Amino acid sequence: MLHVENLKGIFVPVATPFTQDGEIDLASFIHYLEELLRHPIQGIVLNGTTGEAPTVEWAEVETLFHAARTVIRRLGICMPIIVGTGTNDTRTTIRRTEAAGKWGADAVLAVTPYYSRPSADGVYRHFKAVAHTGVPLVAYEVPERTGIRVPVDTMVRILELDGVIGLKDASGGFELVNALAGRSAKPILAGSDDLFAAMLRYGASGGLLASAHVRTEAFLEVYRLAEEGRYDEAEAAFSKLLPLIRLLFRETNPAPIKWVLAQAGLFASDALRLPLTPITQELQKELSAFLASP
Fold this sequence. Notes:
Radius of gyration: 18 Å
Pathway: Amino-acid biosynthesis; L-lysine biosynthesis via DAP pathway; (S)-tetrahydrodipicolinate from L-aspartate: step 3/4
Largest sheet: 8 strands, parallel, barrel
Mean pLDDT: 97
Order of helices and strands: EHEHEHEHEHHEHEHEHHHHH
CATH superfamily: Aldolase class I
Number of helices: 13
Oligomer: single chain
Number of domains: 1
Number of strands: 8
CATH class: Alpha Beta
Main location: cytoplasm
Low-confidence stretches: none
CATH topology: TIM Barrel
Organism: Paenibacillus chartarius
Strand order of the largest sheet: 1-2-3-4-5-6-7-8
Protein name: 4-hydroxy-tetrahydrodipicolinate synthase
Shape: globular
Pfam family, one: DHDPS
CATH architecture: Alpha-Beta Barrel
Strand content: 5-15%
């Protein structure tokens, strides 16, 4: 199981490869993980936004989990697997969290309940019920996708819950991480890729970053510099990654990342499940030009 003190460094939310007819491409998934996990990242997340969680069936998540664990064991490394289990239904989230725990997941990632727009108390009670499962829980705040913003006082209460080991902050600014400073000792992972270096300066313990699929070592170097307290150098190094991040998020994630992975030969196809669609020709040209540069 993942503990509070280990929620730091670079975590990568892995993508889910599909065949052209929309089925899980397990061969590509295994090949891709074998390459990704050669980098000394801290962990991976299955069934997150980058993994196209809204369109991946729960049975498919289980298949991907066991495949990932097999790859990790074959490589002989210690690599925690976090599974995205969050939905806008508390009972479903609990069932998925319990199932992930039985599979052997090291922790789960549960998003703030979306669409229903619950009250602050409803959000707190949701996380409390999920934390009661006993599976280490990382709360995930992403107002752009959920439609609500959790008040700071409520987030403090959530982080005080036994079983909640930290927070992925994709709130799109520094207000939350800054407000939590001194009010919670639990780690916060940056979830807004373009703010990664600045959030490290504000006290984030690392990042859960889709962009770290590409030039992974450069992201690891930014983290290493910040961990040593060399924040100016970290931000200077990060500035070289910002153009890449902006391209990777120009169109809806994970479409650009899947295109890059396919171009690198790690995925057989950049196929997505509807309603997501492949990236435009214009973005393909811009990404190709950037990736061809030194």
